[in-house]
Amino acid sequence: MRPLLSNDLKSFLSRFDDFKGSELREFKILSPTSFIVTLATQDSARGYDWISMDFELSSASAANLLDNSKLTLIDMTDGVEISHNGTDFAFSILNSTFFIECATIKYQEGIF
User: What is the pTM of this model?
Assistant: First the structure.
C-alpha cells in the first residue's frame, strides 16, 4: 500500500472524480483503530476504466461506522471527501453518516 500524502489530496481526488458514482464494496475492521474500506471506482488515468481501491485507515481517533450488510444502501452519487487538518485525515462518504478520522491513510489500486 502507498501512503496518501496531504499535499497529493487534490490531484488524487481529481483523478478519481471524488469517487462520485463509486460502489462501496467492503468494510473490514483490522483492529479497534484500523480499518480497510474497499471501493470500485473509475480511474481517469486509465481511460475511466473501473478499478478497485483499498483504503487502509490507521490510528483512528473518531468514527461512525456501518455494518457490511448496510453498504449496499449507501448512495455514492456525491462521492467521498478526504481532508487533512494538518495532523489528521478525515475520510467520509458524502450524504452518509459514515466517517473515520485517522492519522494515516494508505491506498492500493487493484483489478475491478
Answer: 0.93
